Amino acid sequence: MKKIFLFLFLGTFVLGFSQQTMLSLEDAVLGYQKGLNPSSLNDLQWVTNSNSYVFQKDSALIFTDAASNKVTQNIPLSDLQKSYPELTRFPRLMEISTNELVFTNKNFIETFNYNTQSKSASISFDEAAENTEYNSKAKAIAYTLNNNLYIGTLSNPKIAVTDIEDKNIVSGQAIHRSEFGIVKGTFWSPEGNYLAFYQKDESHVTDYPLVDITTYPASLKNIKYPMAGQGSEIAKIGIYDLKTQKNIYLTIDTSDEHYLTNLSWTPDEKYVLTAEINRGQNHVWYNRYEVSTGKKVNTLFEETNDKWTELEHDAVFLPNSNTSFLWFSERGGFMNLYHYTTDGKLVKQVTSFNWVVTGILGFDESGKNVFITGTGADPREMNTFKVNLKTGKYTKLSKVNGTHSTQLSTNGNYLIDSYSSLSIPTNLEIIDTKKVKSTSIYSAENPLKDYKIGTTKFVTLKGNDGTDLYAKITKPANFDATKKYPVMVYVYGGPHAQLVTNSWLGGSSLWMTAFATLENYIVFTLDNRGSANRGFAFESVIHRKLGDAEMEDQLTGVDYLKSLNFVDSDRIAVNGWSFGGFMTTSLMLRNPGVFTTAVAGGPVTDWKYYEVMYGERYMDTPQENPEGYEKAKVHNYIKNLEGKLLLIHGSIDPTVVPQHSMTLLQEAVKQKVQIDFFTYPMHEHNVRGVDRVHLIKKMMDYIVENNK
Amino acid sequence: MKKIFLFLFLGTFVLGFSQQTMLSLEDAVLGYQKGLNPSSLNDLQWVTNSNSYVFQKDSALIFTDAASNKVTQNIPLSDLQKSYPELTRFPRLMEISTNELVFTNKNFIETFNYNTQSKSASISFDEAAENTEYNSKAKAIAYTLNNNLYIGTLSNPKIAVTDIEDKNIVSGQAIHRSEFGIVKGTFWSPEGNYLAFYQKDESHVTDYPLVDITTYPASLKNIKYPMAGQGSEIAKIGIYDLKTQKNIYLTIDTSDEHYLTNLSWTPDEKYVLTAEINRGQNHVWYNRYEVSTGKKVNTLFEETNDKWTELEHDAVFLPNSNTSFLWFSERGGFMNLYHYTTDGKLVKQVTSFNWVVTGILGFDESGKNVFITGTGADPREMNTFKVNLKTGKYTKLSKVNGTHSTQLSTNGNYLIDSYSSLSIPTNLEIIDTKKVKSTSIYSAENPLKDYKIGTTKFVTLKGNDGTDLYAKITKPANFDATKKYPVMVYVYGGPHAQLVTNSWLGGSSLWMTAFATLENYIVFTLDNRGSANRGFAFESVIHRKLGDAEMEDQLTGVDYLKSLNFVDSDRIAVNGWSFGGFMTTSLMLRNPGVFTTAVAGGPVTDWKYYEVMYGERYMDTPQENPEGYEKAKVHNYIKNLEGKLLLIHGSIDPTVVPQHSMTLLQEAVKQKVQIDFFTYPMHEHNVRGVDRVHLIKKMMDYIVENNK
């Protein structure tokens, strides 16, 4: 009793009243707008071919020399406003050289010489343009309008690269539903003389009908949605020659619906490399095509795998070479780098880590070293390394334990290192890549210092098969180990994602932290097998049987929770979205009695309703793997429900279409099982913006009300 | 204490254990299948031109002479099976004469002479036929396939009356969304020489997109839905001459989207009469058209009304006259009968009741008297009267207080009277129309006699404007007036419906009765102004301001409830569907604090999303009555919510389209108001079949859980 009194005394007089402020769910959800996320330097980037970096502050662009850490120049907004009076704030920069800023101003690409304070002619493009990609060498911008691709140049804002009436044929946009590392549909050649682009023919892809309820009356909003086992898209690669203004298409027969990805140019612009993957996704051909003819030159190599062959990285050519490049491959169990030549020769395996390489930042001035990102030994981290291309010798450049995001200066001399960890909100450092020396340039203060917040700690558990499983546990403020707390297990569990990271809040959303303290809850999350950054074996055990290994690991987490004296084993709820919705419904229905309450958002309930590219990679087709589909189908377990289950779905979810929840509701009704449902009208996959507060409140209210 | 003991003693030994059986919600909802509805005689009907009636029992058709009440004949199923071996049970009869039975056998109309035991040739029609209407004089059946109309005869099963490719043009089906008393789209002429039919052109009616989630993937299920203020259908009347096999269309210009209804033939087949109502629904022209030319002969009369002119009854010609007919009109404030001639002369007003005439059964042999149905002095009843056409003198033929449904023998000598009341499950009597004498032929036993059931009693309240308002109150079994009970107000409240009737259970669904006892609830229902069978003033006070008077009366009901010592005033819930969903959401949101809990099914939330024909009658168009629409729009009150609100909607509701609930959800999310929602996949307006058990449980669980 005396101890408690002392605590209150200190709380009030020493730490100040503000320490006692409760963090509301609303503020937590809107954390970014409310200033509750760690701050940083705004629009921080390197000046091209320079040791200087810039950031924006107080309506000015601040230049700093990385070597001396001295501010060298300061361009106020007013300088730009003389040339661009319509600017009301400093624009986001697309490029910055030692003379010029390049930025988008409405539907113009502007180039401003900040030394002479003079503007160059604007490159204009259509106001309705989407998927814009500017290229400074071409002095041109590629963009799409509806299903066609255009280029805007100094002389012509709208040159049609394609002019195809058939809406089923879409050019210049990401294809294959952005799987296989695809993020865009346009690829400028290194010198800007050509524009390669993806084209997809969706004639055989069925429409999925979504309904827009904001029109009078409601109206149809069809989307193209290739469902597992059904007709898929036919991809093509076109190459537009800016000089001749003509297109050529690579001569690839994709009538078997195989995939095209990882498009790269050779630096001399003579060839395009692309990986081709069969629809079954267990065989890759890496092929070289000649730009002038569109014909295949050679297959550099093939890769096959019993489970799947997934590519997510384009080739990266070595400096000053038209033939040597680095290639990412998981063939050895972990993503590593391989040095190849365009005639298909494997020069050497550059890295042989038993952890995952995630990216290439670039090379140093000598061209002898490559800078890469990867987890390093602790998969919860993200680090930056310098690797000698010849010897494979490597140095870890990011010293502090945590999650590092780095930008390499174009000359390879410096890195901007932005990182956080469980105990660090955000730090910024400049790393001298030669001296391997860091200089701090920014340290964000704890944005939650005035709030009553509990703690988040990591836990490492052993899975049934002996694998290390990483988890985190968030306790409320004023946690009392002699009490019993209810638990919310927050789960995702699907491929390509990792929720337990050594970053600010351990990678958790701020609302989870707030919820723990507001409701005196334990929040627990575990990354099961199948999740990212653990290597192929860990990730691929899920093949053809989604849910099985994932659930087993989550239940290892639940066993751990039940072993804790401060956990009320009879009050465990589970919550997740998307794949996490699949996990939530599966955990609830296939393990009756473990959880009292489940809230599943945008859940996959039957993999046959999910898309071809992602779904067939993990499950094959419904025709090839009927038992697997049947076993994973949540509907089959609805009769088992013990406790309360709430499904939530965006009414126009184009990713996990509403059919997943609707058919599960139908089955529940048929089986006479009472479940709950809510739909967010006109929201897609998940609920964003200010409406997210409503969603989080709905979910947490449901859990608090029923998890007892 | 002693008293209670005595009761238990009696309960066990005298009344037997079965009296204590609780009626489950499931059994109550499935009452019909479970034998919990009052029994009756099956397929009871008159033999044409005879004093005999027939019904089916034990796979036989029993003939009884109404005068002697003696069984005269018995036709076993086996007699029919000799001619129709595929019959597994006695078919439902379409017609029965003193020789022949006419019935449908799959896609054949069969005529069987039961005296000679011989079958006539079958009239076949298409297997996919819908909207079938057989005519024995024509020996032909009219039917529709998709949007076209066909006739099947002895010689040809598929004669195309229309052959129109454009799916927007629909022939032979009910038009105007079955408002204005329209129940079908085909009208055989009295001698069977012609088939008149409705045709509608829906080119200007927008599609409403519904989604079928049972296909793979989900697919679009467009319906034509004319929303208030938007483009409506263009109606036509066609007449097919069976001899010439040609169509003629009445020359009516309906480009102003006016309505055609109440189609009648003159007995000589020379003319067709039809009422035409302007789209504003405040002006009726009753017109006569010549069959041979399709041209208008005359307008018999016009009716106008400041509020609306609603017609629901066709002309009924007097026996042996081609020119004299009876016409229903509400022009005097109550629906009464008027004797007109086809040249437009009003011969006389036949009835002048200050209660509502609801139908004409036919005439007696002399043709001097007409048999009509109507409420009589107590609007909660339905009775049958004989009215002298000349003198207007009338006799009430249905003697017992209650709700009577009568069938007149074709010769006018006898009535079959089927009736129930609060205390009578179902009684059947034969009424001799000359002697006005009744003979009991059947008395159903109480189907709930073995169950623990509470009581339902009528209450008459005074509305704020002095009007009598009829209500009913159901108490649980073992009701104890010294206790406080929570209440569920069940509401409909819209036009054309009446929930408080002197019939079995007072007109309540059996699940309400079961719920009262299962959960120790009071269930209360009141018919507010606007509801049916009270005359035009009572019904039309709602014009242009739906919800206002209706809510006022419902709150009179709530005040009454609060005045009862056994009612817990702090625990009142409200529940309703369709217009009742509009009432439920309006009551909840526009009167915060009155109800703790509301469950609204298939609710209208904004009248602009409702259909042209019904919606504009009561509200005019959104353009004409913007204030009225705005005031009634439930969205405007969502911010007021106190307590819990659950919306339920059929996912393919074609009547109150899902947009009503979806836009209200969207507004709730926008206003940061937490409400609940459930949708029944692939259910239309309301949830039918075995799934209805799930619905009722969901609604009642929600009320029990939250009404506290």
Highlighted features:
Thrombin, subunit H, globular, 15% helix, eight-stranded mixed beta sheet, alpha+beta, Rossmann fold, 708 residues, homodimer
Structure description:
- The structure is a homodimer of 708-residue chains.
- With 708 residues, chain A is of the alpha+beta class.
- Chain A contains eleven helices and 46 strands.
- Among the domains of chain A are: 21-37 and 447-706, Alpha/Beta hydrolase fold, catalytic domain (Rossmann fold), CATH 3.40.50.1820; 38-124, Thrombin, subunit H (Beta Barrel).
- Chain A is 15% helix and 37% strand.
- Chain A has an eight-stranded mixed beta sheet, with helices on both faces. In chain A, strands 6, 7, 8, 9 and 10 form a five-stranded antiparallel beta sheet that branches.
- Mean pLDDT of chain A is 96; it is low at 1-18.
List the helices and strands and how they pair.
The structure is a homodimer of 708-residue chains.
Chain A: H1 2-13, E1 21-22, H2 25-29, E2 42-46, E3 52-57, E4 60-65, E5 70-76, H3 77-83, E6 93-96, E7 100-105, E8 108-113, E9 118-119, E10 123-124, E11 130-135, E12 140-145, E13 148-153, E14 159-160, E15 169-171, E16 186-188, E17 194-201, E18 207-212, E19 219-224, E20 234-241, E21 246-249, E22 259-265, E23 271-277, E24 283-290, E25 296-304, E26 316-317, E27 324-329, E28 336-341, E29 346-349, E30 357-363, E31 369-374, E32 383-388, E33 394-396, E34 403-408, E35 414-420, E36 427-432, E37 437-443, E38 451-452, E39 455-462, E40 468-475, E41 485-491, H4 510-518, E42 522-526, H5 536-540, H6 548-563, E43 567-577, H7 579-590, E44 597-601, H8 612-619, H9 626-632, E45 644-650, H10 659-670, E46 676-680, H11 691-706
